[in-house]
Amino acid sequence: METEPQFFETNAAPTVVGQPMNRVDGWAKVTGHAKYSAEYNQLPGLVHAVLVTSPVAKGRVQRIESSAAQKQPGVLAIFTHENLPKLAKTPDAPADKAALNSPMGFMPMTSDQVHYAGQTVAVVVADTLERAQYAASLVKVIIAPEAPVSSYQDPKAQLYVPKSVKGMPGVTKRGDAQAAVQKAPMQLAATYTHATIHHNYMEPGATTAHWEAADRLTIYETTQGVSETQKTVSLMLGLATEQVRVITKYLGGGFGSKAWVWPHTVYAALIAKAVGRPVKLVLTRPQNFTSMGHREEQQQTLRLGATKEGKLLGIVYDKTATTSPWDDYAETNSRIIGMLYHLPAYEATYRLAKSNVMTSTATRAPGDMPGSFAIECSMDDLAAQLGLDPIQLRLLNYADIDSSTGHPWSSKSLKECYARGAELIGWNKRNPKAGATREGKLLVGMGMATGSYPVHNSQGNARVRLYADGRAVVQAGATDLGTGTYTIITQVAADSLGIPPENVRFELGDTVLPSTQWSGGSTAAGRVSSSVYLAVQEVWQKLIKLAVMDKKSPLYGAKSADVAAEKGRLQLKANPGKGEAFGEVMKRASLGDIEGSALGRYGSNYEAPQTTANADPNKKENAAEHSMHAFGAHFCEVHVDPELGTIRISKWVSVIGAGRILNPKTARSQVIGGSTMGIGAALMEQTVRDPHLARYTNASLADYHVPVNADIPEMTVEFIDEHDPYVNAMGVKGIGEISIVGVTAAVANAVFHATGRRLRDLPMTPNKVLAALREPA
Amino acid sequence: MSSDLFPPADTPPPADDSRRTFMKQAGGIFGFALAAPLAGQAERLTAYSKTVTGATTLTLRINGQPRTVQAEPRVTLLDALRERLDLTGTKKGCDHGQCGACTVLVDGKRVNSCLTLAITAQGKEITTIEGLAKGDELHPMQAAFLKHDGFQCGYCTPGQILSGVACVQEGHAKTDDQCREWMSGNLCRCGAYANILAAVREVADKA
Ligand code: FES
Ligand code: FES
Q: Which residue puts its alpha carbon closest to atom 3 of ligand 2?
């Protein structure tokens, strides 16, 4: 780390970094020129593939009647488990699943097995979309049904404690939490339940697969990680990595679901080869509900013990959730519950039930988002029982170090977030008594909750080519989910190179570019910006070397270490007047351009470089000396209609401390976006699985309600200025996920304040509000 | 809540193929109030009706240019634009009139192009996102979206912008609450609503 330069040092007064610059890809997006993965129509002979899915959640395919479909005009082929070309590798064995980085330990259509409703059982290919769709409607799949298990709530469900979930042990113990809670003068226990949630990104999952030669495949894919997709697809097809090229120039949202290769992508590639034509496969909206994962339905029980003053003594935590027939997947909620406050004793247990549903997957702040609901509602309850202000109780339990690792924080501005958030929402005007504020017939409440999200480790490459005319091309195989990657990297490159952002072109989303990890886990901003910044440093090192050896340079004979680059000028550190512009050096050396490349490291990979040999975003993060997290607080005001049971959010404030904010405009958009999605989970979002048939009953955007414009009030977002030298060379922590952590609890806490009733079952739909209001407070 | 949120009772239904219109007309079947106009419409339809099967040549006026396309009668305007004319700026989010990503203007009115058959859009003026800017000069709504960061991923954006243009024209963006309500047919999963509102309201205030 000593040897790695930091942006803080070399760009003490940045020009565009930290400025609210408009998106550089904005023009393409507002004019309709941004090309998404299903929009590569110029491919010669492009045909369309449409999925046929199972209406049955469990059983075996007995027979497929496809002759009527086959006879339809334009139909090229129909694939089922009987004729799908064989894969080199499937994820069915656990070791293969890990090697493939597959989100599911099961590949549908490689056998007659049906394990969940909506599973693909056939794929129809035709020359036009309409013909493929119609033919698909004629395919009859006869399945011998068996009784499915619909969820962990199914009486047939068998609960078990898994060995581990996502690298975390099934049971974690720190101290004797059971005893601590039992002996505590203040004890509280509550159970929280969460409906199934779907990402419902606006751009449906889509793959356009094009074999440019017998051994060279290009796929245009809705993915958050082109390199990961390249790896998985090449392994499954039995190709070398470089034989597969993956392109994602624009992505219509992902929120975790597009972080993996799901089966339909592989089908598109297989089928394109089999029919000898480029294939476009776009999931219908209902198919998106059963093709790319979801956030699992779950139940959390939190028992806490505290002193009479309100200091936590211990927490015993249980999570019960639905998982698929093959995987032990669950969101790791226990992480945030164990680290958000000073906590001497902790015990957490996961219980899963294998059910007939596909494997759930990463969904914006996996674990921390639902986990924060349990801990932050419980803290609110504790405050109410003790007659303390909710913020005061949180300050009383403020964690000065990370209780889960014993490490100090790399930086933490949570106290400032509380103070500023309280100021912005007008917390001092809040009546401390719940259920005591009215506006006409409406009940008014104000609530808050803490958010936190870890700085996961990750690393990736970037390349910078600086031209003598002062323009630059910057490249990294990253993806921009809408998060602003195009823009923030342009800003970082511009300042590092000392050129205006208009002179920088940043290219991403292609495996021919330097590889970097996926955009997920809030890692991309810090990782990609660091790699670009360091690549620029390599450019400077090369140019400085040239200058000090060049007799015609004013820097001739100087020691390289004594020269620095400042806003595109190479000059002596001790005597900045002595130096010259980079263009001069290049011109004399007859260099039209010069390149630098670098590996950027993020999180513990950065602080503990010895761990870089095996960068794995899921591996233990306590290798470093610091515990690295972003922290923040959400505040809101709600109006509850006691007659209708409706909850309307009337004010929203988020204050976040997440290291350096590269662009406050795109950062604000991420935070309002995360808050909006969290408000959806709090108030309306739920996918309902039929308890008998294990089939979704509302797999459409008409029946699955995401927030609309009228649900969202004015939102105030602020960032606390943080200087964190431990997280990466740019000091960035990432904000895509902390933006949603704590949101559901902030709303529930406001509803509690408005009504005096605690709602612990999400979403808080009007029927639940009315039922709660019927109970005594 | 202010009363300008909802259309006055005597407003004629919009002359488009949106679900809103369909629902109103469908409702009318069971209510005698609309019986007369419906009968009139049925007569008109019969007069024009002829049987069309298989792919035929359709002429669509898109962004001021006549475009011909070979398509079957079942082809939606959305798929004609995206799959046959390579006008992919219009997005498909649900294909069922539930998300607004496919919003285009037909004779100046906002319409879900996924619920509109291309064949019925002949003879009408269709405006897509590609036709909104004048060369390099952005339409004020596009410029306002850029300025207020009224999007993240951009996938709902063409629909939001066209919906915003029509919303202002309809006079439904006069207050924040009214504008929120009348922009609620366009979903944005990136949650850019607060910024979309700022963009549409700014254009409305200048109009
Ligand atoms: S695609 Fe037309 S409304 Fe969703
Ligand atoms: S900008 Fe992504 S859905 Fe609206």
A: B188
Shortest distance between the Cα of B140 and any Cα of chain A, in A, equals 11
Give CA–CA dist A644/A19, Å, rounded. 44
Look up the ipTM and state it.
0.96
A19 touches chain B (CB under 8 A): no
B161 in contact with A, Cβ within 8 Å: yes
- When pLDDT is averaged across residues A343-363 and rounded to a whole number, the result is 98
Active-site annotation of A, residues: 737
Question: Tell me: the pLDDT tens digits for A297-307?
Answer: 999 999 999 99
Q: What is the pLDDT of residues A534-588, one digit of tens each?
A: 999 999 999 999 999 999 999 999 999 999 999 999 999 999 999 999 999 999 9
User: What number is the average pLDDT over the span A384-412?
Assistant: 97
Q: Does residue B18 carry a pLDDT above 50?
A: no
Contact B96 A30 (CB under 8 A): no
- Residue B163 phi/psi, 5-degree rounding, is -65, -40
Instruction: Flag whether pLDDT at A612 surpasses 50.
Output: no
Chain B residue closest in CA terms to A21? B147
Res. B84: pLDDT tops 70:
yes
Of the listed ranges A349-358, A370-379, A712-721, B14-23, the least confidently predicted one is B14-23
Q: What is the 3-state secondary structure (H, E, C) of A270-321?
A: HHHHHHCCCEEEECCHHHHCCCCCCECCEEEEEEEEECCCCCEEEEEEEEEE
- Lay out the sheet containing A472-475: strands in order across: A504-507, A472-475, A458-467, A593-602
Tell the CATH superfamily of the B53-131 domain.
Beta-grasp domain (3.10.20.30)
DSSP code string of A678-734: HHHHHHT--BPBPTTT--BS--STTTSPPP-GGG---EEEEE-----SSS-TT-B--
pLDDT category of residue A114 using cuts at 50, 70 and 90:
very high
The CATH architecture one would assign to domain A38-147+199-288 is 2-Layer Sandwich (3.30)
Confidence of residue A729 (pLDDT cuts 50, 70, 90): very high
CB–CB contact A482 B142 (8 Å): no
Q: Which helix (H) or strand (E) holds A647?
A: strand A647-657
User: What residue ranges line ligand 1, CB within 6 angstroms?
Assistant: B 92-95, 97-102, 112, 114
Instruction: Map residue A190 onto helix, strand or coil.
Output: strand
Q: How far is B186 from chain A (nearest CA, A)?
A: 7
* pLDDT confidence tier of residue B9, bands split at 50, 70 and 90: low
Q: What is the mean pLDDT of residues B50-70?
A: 93
Say whether pLDDT at A415 is over 80: yes
How many A from CA of A454 to the centre of ligand 2? 25
Contacting residues of B for A29, CB less than 8 Å apart: 151, 154, 157
- Whether residue B103 lies within 8 A of chain A, CB to CB, comes out as no
Q: Find out if CATH 3.30.365.10 is the number for domain A387-455+625-774.
A: yes
- Residues spanned by CATH 3.10.20.30 within chain B? 53-131
B153 touches chain A (CB under 8 A): yes
Task: Give the pLDDT of residue B20.
Answer: 43
> Is there a contact between A399 and A338 (Cβ–Cβ < 8 Å)?
no
Instruction: From the options 3.40.50.720, 3.40.50.1820, 3.20.20.140, 3.30.365.10, give the CATH code of A7-34+458-602.
Output: 3.30.365.10
The residue in chain A having the minimum alpha-carbon distance to the alpha carbon of residue B94 is: A285
pLDDT of residue B40: 58
Q: Do domains A7-34+458-602 and A38-147+199-288 have the same CATH topology?
A: yes
* CATH no., domain B132-207: 1.10.150.120
Chosen from A21, A25, A29 to mutate, greatest number of chain B CBs within 10 A: A29
In order, the DSSP letters of A49-107 are EEEEE-S-SSEEEEEEE-HHHHTSTTEEEEEETTTSPPPS--TTSHHHHHHHT-S-S--
Nearest to B189 among A130, A253, A710 (CB): A253
